[in-house]
Design brief:
The chain has a two-stranded parallel ribbon. Helix content is about 45%, strand content about 5%. It is mainly alpha-helical. Helix 2 runs parallel beside helix 3. It contains three helices and two strands, in the order βααβα.
Length: about 70
């Protein structure tokens, strides 16, 4: 479990093989399940399927933890 803030840019840089927003959502859930406590939205994901409410959707995925 990390005490640091997990940033979206670090997720994207470390997982450059992601091809869609939906794949990113699933990965964010994994980080939450592993015990990450904070997620910072420091960049906008530039996928063709990124919705306008991307921040809300990522926050919901991270907060659900399942």
């Amino acid at each position: 479990m990390s005490n640091d803030v997990l940033s979206l840019s670090n997720i994207l840089i470390s997982n450059h093989d992601l091809e869609s927003f939906e794949e990113l959502l699933q990965l964010v859930k994994v980080f939450a399940q592993r015990g990450e406590r904070f997620l910072r939205f420091d960049v906008k994901p530039e996928f063709p399927d990124t919705p306008e409410d991307w921040e809300d959707r990522l926050e919901a995925a991270f907060s659900s933890r399942y």
